[in-house]
Each structure stands twice: as C-alpha cells, then as structure tokens.
Write a structure and sequence with these properties.
The complex is a heterodimer. Chain A is of the alpha+beta class. Chain A has 15 helices and 14 strands. Chain A has helices spanning about 10-15, 20-30, 35-50, 100-115, 135-145, 180-190, 190-195, 215-220, 235-245, 250, 280-285, 330-345, 350-360, 360-365, 395-404, and strands at about 55, 70-75, 90, 115-120, 130-135, 165, 205, 220-230, 235, 260-265, 270, 290, 295-300, 315-320. In chain A, the strands form 4 sheets. In chain A, strands 1-2-3-5-4 form a 5-stranded antiparallel sheet, with helices on both faces. Chain A has a 5-stranded mixed sheet with strand order 6-7-8-13-14. In chain A, strands 9-12 form a two-stranded antiparallel ribbon. By secondary structure, chain B is mainly α. In chain B, about 50% of the residues lie in helices and about 10% in strands. Chain B contains 3 helices and 2 strands; from the N terminus they run αααββ. Chain B has a two-stranded antiparallel ribbon. In chain B, strand 1 (about 60-65) and strand 2 (about 70) form a beta hairpin. The longest helix of chain B has 15 residues, at about 5-20. Classes of the chains: A alpha+beta, B mainly alpha. The interface between A and B is medium-sized, with 34 and 25 residues.
Chain lengths: ~400, ~80
C-alpha cells in the first residue's frame, strides 16, 4: 500500500532537517489509512497551487453538545473522496496532561477505528485533538470515548476546555494546585463548556508560578497565576556555592533583576522584597539557593487574547493575591458576575478583554463589585482610575461658581 | 405566574423558526427576547433550561458561523454528500 502514496515533492521538503515533521507522520499513517493518503494529495495540491481546499462546517456535532467538533470538508471531494468529510474533535484532556499508557492506547484504538488515526497531542487549546473523521462516525466516537471516561472539550462561543501546567505534580515552584483547580472548574462549569451561551469564547488557564509555562497571561480570558506575598526564601550558603562554582551573581542575577531589588556584596545576597515584582528570574537562575515565599496563592488576571477581531492583548490584574483553596468560592463568584455582565452587555464576538476596554475598567469593576487597587493599573499615567464622583458631590460646581 | 420550561421553550422555538433564513439568534438573544416577552414570569435559569430542552429534543441545534447560534436543524451548506 505504501507504493500508492501520492507524489509530494513540495511536502517532502518539510521532512528535511532535525526537527519533527508532520509530513513524516502523515506518511506513516497513510500506509494504513486511505484518509491520510488523500490528505497528503490535497495538501500537496494546496502547496503547489497556493490555495487552501478546506471548507468549514458549522453544524456537525454530537447530540446535545454545541462545541468540541469542528466541521471540515474537502472542496475537492471527487478527487480526494477519503477526506470528503474531515472533522476535528477536541477532547477534554486530563489536567496537567497526565495519562496512563493504557488510556493513550485506548484513545488511539478508538481513533484508528473511527477516524484517520492522526492526533495532535496537544492543540494550543490544551485539548487532545483528533484529526479527521466523517459525520457518521462522530456519535460512535463520542460514545466509545465516554466509555473510557473522556469527554468532548469546548469550541465556539463557550467556555473552552480549562487547561493548566503540570503544577505540583512535577514542579517545585507551583504556588497552588493547578490541576485540582482545573479539574474543579471543568466539572463545575460543564454546562458552560458544552452549551455555547457567551458572546464569544472564554478561556481559563492556570499557571502554578509566575514563569507561566502555559502562557496564560497572553492567551486566557482569565489567567490564574501562582505567586507569593511574603519574602523569597534564600539559602545564603547555596548562593555562595553558586559564586564559588563560577557564577557571576552580580552580572547574571542582580543586574538582570527588572526591579533592581537585590544586591550582592560577595558574601550575602540582600533582597528588598517590597520591590520584587515576582519575575522569577533569580529563582530560575539559582534554583538551589532561592525559592518562592511560603505564603502562596495566585494573582487573578483578566482579558488576554490573541489577535482575531482586535489586536493581541495581555491580561491585567483583577486580584493581586488570593488564596487558592477548595471550594474556590471567590473565583467562582467573580466568574459568575463577570459572565452575567458580559453576556448581558457584550457584543457578538467580543472577548471579555475587549468588552472591558470598551466599557472602561472602572465601570467593569463597579458592575462586578470589585474595589479598584493600584495593582490594576496596567499603564501608569494612562489609566489612573480616579473616580471623581467620590470627590465632587452634587452642587459642588454651583458652589465654585458662587465663590468665583 | 411563572412560565414553565416547556412554555418558554415553545416561545423560543417560534422565535428561531420565524428568524430562520433571515437572522441567526444566539442563546442570549433568545433569553433577552423571552424576558422581554414574558417579563417577570421568567428568569435566566428557566431560559437556560428551555434552550437545553430545545437542543436535547433535537428541535434545534447549535451552529457555529464565527459565533455560536441556535437554529433549526438543516443541511449544512458546506457539506459534501
């Protein structure tokens, strides 16, 4: 069957080099799957003619769910009948992406039976992405995945599958249990995940520390990033050991501190913790000597998005520090208020960050009952959030006029 | 008197049916329209249940065209046979 593979001189270029190649993987799958053979053929034609031959479907899905299936059809079904239907399924990943090998084998077996066999572990959403099946196979795939305790993830104007870093499972810097929070939010908001009711998508991403390995600050509508509010833990002996082994503490650590909050006198590292902005640089450089503080929790930020309608936005602070402990009432109460407001007032395809930009952070905070604090100021001198009505009572203008 | 989920679902179904081919309605559009129609006799929770009933019964489906909508089941324009 391998001899039947289409000629793909342009795609072959993408197999060269030391890095992994999706072409190589599709070719391997094509030895067994007619879908993958046609996929190679259409892809080569697209590269040759510089035209994409996919049509986007908007209706296919599984009964009762409004997300998790992205409909896709070939625009050349007569030439490539194997990919006439080539729908993608997003499957809710386990928090932190931990699997048993048995679970992975089961997913692959199901997908080889019902789809192309091609997977993307994992998509940028965090989900398990199963690439390429037909409309008739969507329900059977869903049913078989449900039997091994996997569910479909989010797509469309709904809560997207919450995702997190591996947190306390593998990382010593995790300031809260990202996996526990992710699992809890996923289960708590099942309706919002499967039944699109928002103006547009909404993403939670949980990072255990300010290194933000899941890039939540750039991608999530609500970023929950671990932090601490006491002092960085310092082992001075270990710092001296780094220096003894050749590290230039002044050049590699002190001078790279963005807030210039530390000093090295050759014997001791002094940190002015009130100036520390939790960038993690010093901790990353000297992991044996420095650790995050002991009073740990998270900063909640809101409003990041990639550029689709408007430009890219980073999230900005909503709560500088909160403790992250079950049952996560403060987070859920805040989220419910934000969703109520955004669903009521948000425009179609308006992300929550764009909504805040449109109505103003001051009005947004007032509507969700959150007091403004200095940490919310994203750009000093641009948005000081001075609420003048607190200083000028009704009638003040008249008094001023009378005085003059 | 508060409206039942069935009554709200029926009203929503009629809205979707009347708008078919002219305007795509989002779940929040249906909720707002129904709340305007019935006033205090409905709340957001009942509207949510009503949409759930419409979808689970197969009378309506979720669709995605840049955003998510509730529509009558119909053949997909892009679909190949």
């Amino acid at each position: 069957m391998a001899d039947n593979l289409p000629q793909t001189p342009l795609l072959n270029e993408l197999e060269k080099g030391a890095w992994p190649s999706f072409v190589k993987e599709i070719k391997m799958a094509a030895k067994r799957s007619p879908m993958c053979r046609d996929l190679l053929g259409q892809l080569e034609q697209s590269y040759r003619e510089k035209i994409g031959y996919w049509k986007h479907g908007g209706i296919v899905g599984v009964m009762g769910y409004g997300g998790g299936v992205i409909g896709r059809y070939s625009a050349l079904p007569d030439k490539y009948p194997g990919i006439s239907h080539f729908h993608t399924m997003r499957i809710n990943q386990p928090a932190g992406w931990f699997y048993t090998s048995k679970a992975l084998r089961s997913i692959c077996d199901i997908w080889e039976k019902h789809g192309s066999g091609l997977t993307n572990m994992h998509g940028s959403t965090g989900d398990i992405i199963l690439l390429g099946t037909t409309t008739a196979h969507l329900e059977p795939t869903f049913a078989e995945l449900a039997k091994i305790d996997f569910d479909i993830g989010g797509s469309g104007s709904d809560l997207r599958t919450p995702s997190c870093c591996c947190g306390m499972a593998r990382c010593e810097w995790a300031c809260y249990d990202t996996m526990a929070l992710t699992y809890d939010l996923t289960m708590h908001y099942q309706d919002e995940l499967h039944r699109p009711a928002f103006p547009y998508k909404f993403k939670f991403k949980m990072s255990g520390c300010p290194n933000d390995c899941v890039a939540s600050i750039a991608r999530a509508d609500m970023s929950i990033i671990g932090t601490w509010r006491d002092d960085i833990q310092v082992d001075q002996e270990a710092v001296r050991e780094y220096a003894k082994r050749g590290m230039d503490i002044t050049s590699d650590v002190v001078n790279n501190c963005p807030s210039k909050c530390m000093d090295w006198d050759g014997k001791e590292l002094h940190i002015e913790n009130s100036f520390c902005v939790r960038c993690m640089h010093c901790i990353n450089v000297m992991p044996k000597a420095l650790r995050p503080g002991k009073d740990r929790g998270a900063t909640i930020l809101i409003g990041a998005k990639a550029p689709i309608i408007e430009g890219a936005m980073l999230s900005s602070v909503l709560f500088p520090f909160i403790k992250i402990e079950p049952p996560y009432t403060q987070i859920k109460n805040t989220v419910d208020k934000i969703w109520d407001l955004w669903c009521e007032e948000g425009k179609n395809r308006e992300r929550v960050g764009e909504f805040i930009q449109r109505v103003g952070l001051g009005n947004f905070l007032e509507a969700i009952d959150v007091e403004p604090v200095p940490e919310m100021v994203a750009h000093p001198r641009e948005n000081p959030y001075v609420f003048y009505e607190e200083y000028f009572e009704e009638g003040d203008d008249e008094e001023e006029e009378e005085e003059s | 008197m508060a409206k039942s989920v069935e009554e709200v679902a029926e009203a929503m179904f009629n809205m979707v049916k009347d708008a078919a081919g002219q305007k795509k309605l989002k779940p929040m559009d249906l909720t707002k329209n129904v709340m305007q129609l019935f006033g205090d006799e409905v709340d957001k929770q009942i509207c949510k249940e009503a949409i759930k009933q419409l979808i689970n019964s197969g009378r309506c489906v979720y669709t995605y065209f840049g955003g998510s909508y509730v529509e009558l089941p119909h053949r997909e324009g892009a679909a190949n046979d």
